[in-house]
Write a structure and sequence with these properties.
heterodimer, A: 196 residues, mainly alpha, 79% helix, B: mainly alpha, 7 helices, globular
């Protein structure tokens, strides 16, 4: 039987990389904040899932064009926020994104890919703007950015994964119901934004 | 042009300059992401291009590092964000670039980021050994990423690489915002 000491030592070194972690505590907090931010708000989560599901419903090339478009335009919105460029109605835009994208899923609408990309990109600006404005003080901006881009992309991938049930008839119906639920959530968040 | 010292925080591992250099390449996203981007691009470009980038990028990084250590001058910070945007954008587009252009990109990336690293290494007292550690890490990283991408055969896997490129562009846009905005 082989000794497990080398394995235990390796695991311990990997689990407690104190020389590096001690020096980068603030940076690691930025990454964690970025990863958590997109999943900490239901309005963001609903819209991201809708993007993925809608892409899966539409099939190629939308299944990858929409998730490629969204992060880049979202980051553009974040950049506007960081540069101090005012964008009005951010919260309303986020609520409307869930409402309209959920509605598209619910009615299984298949517009031209350019139209879909513009629609998704337009709403991505509002999501990015909100993300860019909410970095906690003292944390690493670039690691926060990496965190929320990865988290957003993972939400899209989750939406695509769910959307793959579209190949079955019952799956199609389930997706349309889910789209209606997302649209209802979006309507609620839009109402809150307008009334608040 | 305003000369700025690269703001990436040089990590000290406590294990000596070689390991400091190795760690620097891995925990500095300002360097790591453009390197991943050019490795993805080289992988998409095929075996011949990937092999050349594998050797040219570390060599250019070494030359850039030596220049940075000697001159103690760094390019403006915004140029780092341009690396994200240009290389990530080419990965997203997945359009073949000519071999000369591809090589020029690798040389430019190596020189630019290498000299930034060189300034930091010199300031931290790590010097040439640290640069060599970074160069070794880059060689390993590029060989792993290009090898992975070159071996991809199914169409959806190539799309996944393009999605990764879009994430790098997104981080680059935000980095531009952090660099020139009021919260950087």
């Amino acid at each position: 039987m082989q000794s497990i000491k080398p394995i235990v030592a390796t695991v311990a070194l990997l689990a407690f990389p104190s020389p590096l972690a001690a020096h980068e505590g603030g940076a690691a907090a930025g990454l964690l904040s970025g990863l958590l931010h997109p999943v900490s708000g239901l309005d963001h989560v609903l819209a991201m899932l809708a993007v993925g599901i809608w892409g899966a419903q539409m099939g190629p090339p939308a299944i990858w064009v929409l998730p490629v478009t969204f992060p880049m335009v979202m980051a553009f919105g974040g950049m506007l926020s960081l540069l101090g460029v005012p964008v009005p109605g951010v919260e309303i835009g986020i609520g409307l994104s869930a409402l309209l994208l959920g509605f598209m899923v619910a009615i299984e609408r298949r517009p031209a890919i350019e139209v879909a990309a513009v629609l998704v990109g337009f709403f991505a600006i509002f999501h990015g703007y909100a993300h860019g404005a909410e970095l906690p003080e003292g944390q690493s901006g670039i690691l926060y950015s990496i965190g929320f881009v990865v988290s957003t992309g993972t939400l899209h991938a989750s939406g695509i994964g769910v959307g793959l049930i579209h190949r079955w008839d019952r799956g199609k119906r389930a997706l349309r119901i889910a789209g209606a639920g997302i649209a209802a959530g979006g309507a609620w968040f839009t109402w809150l934004a307008v009334s608040g | 042009m305003i000369s700025l010292v690269f703001s990436a925080h040089l990590v000290t591992t406590g294990l000596g300059p070689l390991f400091d250099g190795i760690g620097h390449a891995v925990v500095t996203p300002q360097d790591l992401l453009p390197v991943i981007a050019i490795a993805l691009l080289a992988g998409l470009g095929g075996k011949a291009y990937a092999r050349k980038v594998l050797f040219i990028l570390p060599a250019a990084w070494l030359v850039g590092g030596l220049l940075g250590m000697t001159l103690m001058w760094s390019a403006p910070l915004g140029t780092t964000a341009l690396s994200f945007l240009i290389l990530g954008g080419l990965v997203v587009a997945d359009r073949p670039v000519s071999e000369k252009t591809g090589m020029a990109l690798a040389v430019a990336l190596g020189l630019l980021h290498g000299q930034m690293s060189g300034v930091e290494m010199q300031a931290a007292g790590i010097g040439l050994v640290g640069i060599l550690g970074t160069v070794g890490t880059l060689f390993a990283l590029v060989s792993l990423v290009t090898g992975l991408v070159v071996s991809l055969e199914r169409p959806w896997t190539r799309i996944a690489v393009r999605v990764a490129g879009s994430w790098i562009v997104a981080v680059g846009l935000l980095y531009l915002g952090w660099t020139f905005g009021t919260r950087g």
